[in-house]
Amino acid sequence: MPDTGSNHRRGLGVLPAPGLVIGGIVGLQCGAALTTRLFPAVGPAGVVTLRLCVAAVVLVAAWRPGLRWDRGTWALVAGAGTLIAIHHLSYYEALDRIPLGAATTVEFTGPFLIAATGSRRAIDALWTGLAGAGVLLLTGSGHRLSAAGLGFAALAGCCWGGYILVAKRLARRVPDGRGLALAVAWGALLSLPYGLAQGGTRLFRPAILATGAAVAILSTVLPYSLQFEALRRLSRRVFSVLTSLEPAVGALAGRLLLSQHLSLLQWLGITAVALASIGASHLAG
Predict the structure, then answer these.
(1) Fewer CB within 10 Å, N side or C side of the chain?
(2) Cα 140 to Cα 134: distance, rounded to the nearest angstrom
(3) pLDDT score recorded for residue 285
């Protein structure tokens, strides 16, 4: 029987690492835009449960991870899975309350802090100030944004920043998708009670299952596989630079797929956060 996991890794290995990150961002943001259409039926937590459960089945089937790992590796798997679950639940609660571009920009403060902490130069204050100004422009001008939505987005950002750190260590210990597969499976189990509470039996309707499965492939299986491989090959500084595109891609996806509008000042805020991350990451040692 062919080793599908090894074939999958060899396939990703021929692609440039920056392209993996950008592809993951596009899939993640387009998938996030599409999943909002399921909110009225199953709620944000229901969408998360569908995404993670389908993704877990696909990844475990593809990589067939074993269970004979040391405690340190299991701790990283559990940590990554927990961060994935909390990130998804909070991020989609944010999307239910504020536009995609705004949610992604606030969420992006997590990776920004990862990039900024890599340098101790005086100019770091400039990038931190620019990022802070960007968030103020985004949240304090144009359309008023839900405080709860901003809070959920900030929590998602903390989890995403933590995931980058944990996943980087996991990728070094397990240099293929087996660790990711079990992390996503653990995240799916953690999200299941919340998803059932919000979505109930509606989660098992064929049309919703089909849509959830398609979204899981687009916005979980592909992005996480691409970015996990990229984390194995890139430094966290370079990875954070590349993910600076995420706020802009999120805003564009919201505009094109959901007809969500942001004011000029809010667009300037998104741009400021992205530029701050690029600057901080470029100067990080």
Answers:
(1) N
(2) 10
(3) 45
